[in-house]
């Protein structure tokens, strides 16, 4: 009759499931002890909770002010970027109208060359 394994027994084949269970069970107890110790350190007075609420409210307002400031900076930078792009497009358009734009002259030369070739044929 085959022998039955009991959890935690090892047959020597490298099966560590029993040891893993013991280690994982032991490590899960660690945070419970820490959290209970933290709870014991906290004072039970109502004054500290009011200070915590006021501190939280102050920090919340400070964060909201920072967010509003960042949003304003973003709007200013977005408008600057838009203005720069509009100026760049206007400059390129002025070069095209004046016949000086390299982006315009290259394709224009190829079109004129194709036109000349087709007219000759």
UniProtKB/TrEMBL annotation:
Membrane-spanning parts: none
Domain of life the protein comes from: Eukaryota
Chief location of this protein within or outside the cell: nucleus
Region Disordered: start-end pairs: 1-59
Keyword Transcription regulation: yes
Family: Belongs to the BRMS1 family.
Compositionally biased tracts (Acidic residues): 37-55
Organism: Leptidea sinapis
UniProt key word Chaperone: no
Subcellular location: Nucleus
Alphabetical UniProt keywords: Nucleus, Repressor, Transcription, Transcription regulation
GO biological-process terms attached to the record: regulation of gene expression
Protein name stated in the entry: Breast cancer metastasis-suppressor 1-like protein-A
Entry GO terms, CC: nucleoplasm
Gene3D superfamilies per record: 1.20.5.1500
């Amino acid at each position: 009759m085959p022998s039955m394994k009991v959890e935690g027994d090892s047959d020597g084949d490298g099966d560590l499931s029993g040891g893993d269970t013991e280690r994982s069970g032991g490590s899960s107890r660690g945070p419970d002890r820490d959290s209970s110790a933290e709870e014991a350190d906290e004072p039970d007075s109502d004054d500290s909770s009011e200070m915590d609420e006021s501190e939280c409210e102050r920090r919340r307002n400070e964060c909201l002010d920072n967010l509003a400031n960042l949003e304003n900076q973003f709007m200013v930078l977005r408008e600057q970027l838009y203005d720069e792009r509009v100026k760049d497009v206007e400059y390129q358009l002025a070069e095209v109208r004046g016949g000086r734009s390299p982006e315009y002259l290259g394709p224009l030369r190829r079109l004129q060359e194709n036109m000349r070739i087709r007219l000759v044929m």
